[in-house]
Give the backbone structure.
Amino acid sequence: MINVEFSYKELKIRVPEEVYEPREDSFLAAKVLEEEDLEGKKVLDLGTGTGILAIIASRNGGKVLAADKNPEAVKYAKSNAERNGIELKVKKSNLFGSLDDKFDLIVFNAPYLPGDGRYDKMEDLSWKGGEKGNELILNTIEKAKEYLNEKGRLLLVQSSRTGRKETMEKLEEEGFETRIVREKKVPWENLLVIEAILV
């Protein structure tokens, strides 16, 4: 059942109740992808949700695979791509669980709120990234190297409230060079997009 329908620039996106509705974090990552030349690059949008980031990456020339563990997200990512005239490959996968390819770029707008009790009134689990909020990101960083081509890149969305320093240290420990490519202050936190290049 469709809960929300909205426009992002010229894109028309439908969001069912069971899928995370794009917000400031999604739009921050979208701005980064809009500036990318992805012609011929293999791109993975991990935890694609509505498919908005995958659609933008595809429109910018990427050969994109959108993956999500939620079957409703898979369904709506496909239909949102079709509505916007984009061909998009979408696969049901719990993170890297059902994937066996390698990519030039992995985009991950991960759940990042802590599940330590502060947000227990929120029914939408798509916000929660572990007890401290960054466990899902840290676990994904550990596995990402297996799915990246030489000089492959990660684009990670991170909140200032959930272990920004720890994330940067983990990336460097795993052999990535890191930089913050975009940051935005919102009332309760800073959102940032981290670029990590495998070296």
Summary: Strands lie at 2-8, 11-16, 42-46, 63-68, 89-92, 103-108, 148-159, 176-186, 189-198. The chain is about 25% helix and 35% strand. The first strand starts at residue 2 and ends at 8. Confidence is low (pLDDT under 50) at residues 116-130.
